[in-house]
Structure formats: C-alpha cells, structure tokens
Design brief:
This protein has 350 residues and is an all-beta fold. 1% of the residues lie in helices and 35% in strands. The chain has a six-stranded antiparallel sheet, with no helix packed on it. The chain has a five-stranded antiparallel sheet with strand order 1-2-26-29-30. It is globular. The N terminus is likely disordered.
Length: 350
C-alpha cells in the first residue's frame, strides 16, 4: 500500500536475506604528516567514498580518486614515483606511462584497483588509512593519514598546497580547492529507540555528542536540511512514522541522515520493507516518477507524455524487517519504476 508523505510499506513473501551496515560519518582524526621534499608535489585532495560525485573519464565509474598538485614553477615528471595506501609498503604502485604534472597543475589518479596508467592497484578505505607519495628513490614526498570518511565528501588542502587540511562538501578534482572547507564532519544523531515494530506509542529522543551542534529532523520522508524542524525534546510517535534526522554545526559538514521507521500497532506474519524519500521524488509534477506530471514522454501504451514513462531514478532509504521484527538491513539506495504498459495502472512496480 502507498502511504502519504512518500512513505511506502511493501509486504511480501520472497525478499532476499540481506545484511548491510551503514558507514557512519565521523570527525576525522589526523595522524602526524610531513613532507621532506620542500615545495615538491603534494597530495592536494582525495575522496575515499565516491558514490555520485564524478566518474572517471575512461571507465565511467565512481571510483576513489587522489589529486596531486604541483605548487612550483617547473613541470615535474612523475614517472618512477610511487603511490601507496600502506606506508609500510611505500613502493606499492609505480607511476608510469609518461605522466607529467605541469607548473601549478593537477593530476588525478583513480584508485580503482585496475593497476594501469592513472589507475593505481589499490582502493582507498572509507574506514580510514593513509595515502602516500614517494619519489624515485623511495623517499617520502608527502602523505596524509585519515580516519573514517563520508560519502561524496573529499578531504584536502585549503588553499591548494597549504598545510591546512579541510573537508569539502563540493569536491574539485583537477581544479583549485576554492570551495568552502570544513573542520570536520558531524557524527550521525543517536536514536533512543530502535526502528521496527512497537505495540503502542513511544517517545523517541535524539542526541549528539558534538558540542554546540543542533539536530534537525523530518517526518515526511524528506532528508532534513538546515531549515528543517529543530529537535528540542522527545518526539511522540503514536502511529506508524518515519523519522529522519541529521546533525548540523557551523564549520562542519552536516552528518549523514539517519532514518528510522517506527511501525506502531502493526501486526502480520510477512516481512516489511519501508521506503522513505522526499515526497517530490514520487509526486511532484515536474520530477515525480509516480504521476502523469508535466515533464514526461509518450510510450508504454499511452501516446501522451507522462512522467512515469521516464527512465528516472530517485534516492530512497530502504529498511527491511523480518516477520519477527528483526532488522534485516537499512541502506540508502535508488528506485525506478519497472515494467511497460503496467505503468498506466494506479499501483506501479518499483
């Protein structure tokens, strides 16, 4: 059945048994870093969780990436240098194939494990590790050790080549680091009650360990923004509700959104899937995938333009509950309409 406020509950018998963990955003803890080659090439920016920021120009994949910057007035030939994600193995991947970085220029390497030109043999870990650059003699040129990373948030120097390190909500691979830099990434809020089945109304408290931060939340399926409802006390949940919350603090990248579905008084013997999304993603006339709308195309047994004929994907959060109420998984994902002429019916396949 389709519930209002873009919250869908789907019941069925044949859902896969899947487990998945969400990688929580965290404030980065830096280990010591140094450079022994003076004003040589530096690791200027990198991303260890490239979900949707930029695709590499060869394979079209959202791969991890490392940007090097040359702050000097002379070109530097990088052939014979090494990149590594393990400082105990400084010669892990040899740069070759005629790679030169121009004065005040940038070179981007795609850490996708392919082991070819511009594509190192390793990937970066979202859980934190190190990335290092070594010269032809195996001497360290530059390295950065980093902690847990957040999706589509880069980390690097602000400004280019400086010692100051910042997070960037608007990454700039291959370009100057001119976007606003942040001191850290706010941690996700903590919910006092688990998602799932509850026999009666309950109060849900939201907390954060980040000093001078605030929590914003929504109950309409949309991800919270800095202008969403400010949390100032327990939220009373008396009927089936989705709460989505995030932590905000000046100078910090907002936390990733935490989503919890509370099924109040629901009974049954089948699994439950909860899909949460901004209502506009389904029902807006211009971008909604579930309506006739005003931005569609003809096809699938209809000659008039219809939104639901578009091959659009919209972001959602999915929670899967076993019949006994156990949480199977909770993940961010995407959703599309499925099928052909069945799209003309009120209930559509996803």
């Amino acid at each position: 059945m389709i519930r209002t406020k873009a919250h869908l509950l789907l019941r069925g018998r044949h859902f896969p048994s899947v487990t998945s963990s969400l990688i929580a955003a965290a404030i980065l803890v830096l280990l010591p870093r140094w450079s022994v080659v003076g004003q040589g090439v530096v690791i200027n920016e990198f991303m260890a969780a490239n979900d949707s920021t930029i695709t590499d120009p060869v394979f079209g994949e959202y791969a991890d990436w490392i940007e090097l910057y040359n702050p000097g007035p002379s070109a530097v030939v990088l052939d014979g240098y090494f990149l590594t994600d393990d400082l105990a193995e400084p010669r892990k991947w040899l740069i070759s194939g005629g790679v030169t970085i121009q004065p005040y220029g940038y070179v981007v390497f795609w850490a996708d494990g392919r082991d070819m030109r511009f594509h190192p043999s390793f990937r970066l870990s979202v859980d934190g590790e190190s990335v290092g650059l070594y010269d032809t003699d195996g001497r360290v040129v530059d390295y950065i050790s980093f902690g847990v990373q957040s999706r589509d948030i880069s980390y690097g120097r602000s400004p280019d080549g400086a010692d100051e390190l910042r997070f960037f909500a608007h990454p700039t691979p291959g370009r100057p680091n001119t976007s606003e830099g942040f001191l850290g990434i706010a941690e996700r809020p903590v919910f006092s009650a688990p998602a799932g089945f509850h026999p009666a109304a309950l109060s849900v408290e939201l907390t954060t360990g980040l000093v001078d931060a605030e929590i914003r939340f929504t109950i309409d399926g949309s991800p919270p923004e800095s202008v969403s409802t400010l949390y100032d006390g327990p939220i009373v949940v008396s009927s089936t509700t989705v709460i989505r919350a995030a932590v905000f603090k000046p100078g910090y990248v907002p936390s990733e959104v935490t989503t919890r579905t509370y099924l109040i008084g629901e009974t049954g013997s089948l699994p439950v899937v909860s899909l949460s999304t901004d209502p506009a993603n389904f029902f807006d006339d211009e971008i909604g995938i579930y309506v006739e709308g005003t931005n569609g195309i003809p096809g699938y047994c209809r000659d008039i333009p219809l939104n639901w004929n578009q091959d659009w994907e919209r972001p959602i959060h999915v929670e899967f509950f076993e019949p006994d109420g156990t949480m199977g998984f909770s993940i961010d994902a995407g959703v599309k309409l499925h099928g052909g002429c069945t799209r003309i019916y009120p209930q559509k396949s996803l």
